[in-house]
Amino acid sequence: MNDVVNLLTLVVFLAILFLFLFVRSINGARRREKESQAYLQTLKGQILGEMSATSAEKSDDLSRQIDELFLSKLPVLGSSIERFWMDLSLLGWQKNWRSRVVLLAAPCLLLGFTLGKDSLSPLGLSFALAALFFGLLVFLLYRNAMAKHLKEFRQNLPQSIDSIVRVARAGVPVTNAFNLVSESLPGPLAKEFSLIDSWLQLGVPLRQAMQDSAARVPLNEYRFFVVILIINQETGGRLSDTLERLSVTLRERQELALKIRAKTSEVRASAVIVASLAPLSLAYMYFNSPNDFQFLLNDPTGNSVLMYAFGSVAFGLGITHFMIRRVIR
Questions:
Q1: CA 185 to each of CA 89, 90, 102, 161, 241: distance values in angstroms, whole numbers, following the listed order
Q2: Of the candidates 156, 198, 157, the residue with the CA atom closest to the CA atom of residue 175
Q3: Cα(161)–Cα(248) distance, integer angstroms
Q4: Residue 73 gets which letter from DSSP?
Q5: pLDDT tens across 282-326, in order?
Q6: Rounded to 5 degrees, what are φ and ψ at 50?
Q7: Distance CA 308, CA 141 (A)
Q8: What DSSP designation does 92 have?
Q9: Residue 168 burial by Cβ neighbours in a 10 Å radius (0-12, 13-18, 19+)
């Protein structure tokens, strides 16, 4: 039975490897085809004096993503799936998500079959462990990438608001300020402002462009900025003074957030240590005490102990996370 499971593990791993190479080759061919078509469309636009189709496709990319995602119509998980899909677009992972899934699924399947091949139900437990590892890996990568992305976005926002204030005081309309400001900004905020400028050049109203941008970026500070621009366009007033006060408020919020992180550093470090105890203990047991490790997987009592350990650790981490979120809010 062990030889059959080992052979099946090898076959699954090779199949995933060939599937990844096949998907990668297809994506490369599609990308080269799109680049050639975009180049031809650009030459055609230059000859005819018209806007190229590449700019139009880039400018309404978010609208197509929101409208074409059929999973967003699900009753319970629809909003979460839609938010996750938009975050993948924000991170730039949406174009090659298939190759990323295959690349992450291969080691998870291999690890799942390695751990579950000697259990009472090798196939079922192996696929269950592989799915668990895949979900945890995707969650950790997605959470870390979004945290870094939003942190950079939050840090550059006051600087961008100051630039818009200077442009507004110079007499430039706010609809023309995004293109000027995006040229001097680093990071993802420059990309977002360039996208807003593309929408405005196509004739999209400022209110709709900013609302779509606020739906795309899950950041409260940025939504404050969007609300101020929309209200100022509808009611009038001195936009530069309002944005200047917002910039000062955002810098004060950043200082407060740094103080909160310093106050909660001990609790967060304890949560990381507690979370790493369970997998590190299992890894030590797997290499140094394989009989005890097999007892956890093959014996019903060991399964109960393993479920209790993971359940108690998850429950403790949930309480710790809830306490930290209460302090941050």
A1: 20, 17, 35, 11, 21
A2: 198
A3: 10
A4: G
A5: 788 878 887 887 787 777 788 788 788 878 877 877 787 777 666
A6: -115, 165
A7: 26
A8: T
A9: buried
Q: Nearest CA to 253 among 324, 329, 310, 179?
A: 329
Task: Give the pTM.
Answer: 0.64
The token duo for 215 is: 């739906």
Q: What is the pLDDT of residue 110?
A: 83
d(CA 261, CA 237): 37
Kindly state the helix (H) or strand (E) to which residue 109 belongs, with its residue range. helix 97-116
Nearest 10 degrees: CA dihedral of 118, 119, 120, 124?
-110
Tell me the pLDDT tens digit for each residue of 259-293.
878 877 877 787 778 778 777 887 888 788 878 87
* 318 close to 262: Cβ distance less than 8 angstroms: no
Tell me, what's the pLDDT at 68? 47
- Yes or no: say if 190 and 258 are a contact pair by the CB < 8 Å rule: no
Cα separation, 54 vs 59, in Å, equals 9
Reduced to 3 states, what is the DSSP secondary structure of residue 163?
helix
* Exposure string for 250-261, b = 16+ CB within 10 A, e = fewer: beeeeeeeeeee
Neighbours of 167 (CB within 10 A): 18
Q: What is the DSSP letter of 302?
A: H
More confident residue, 30 or 183: 183
Q: Which residue has the tokens 């290499």?
A: 287
Name the DSSP class of 120: S
Degrees (nearest 5) of the Cα angle 62, 65, 69? 155
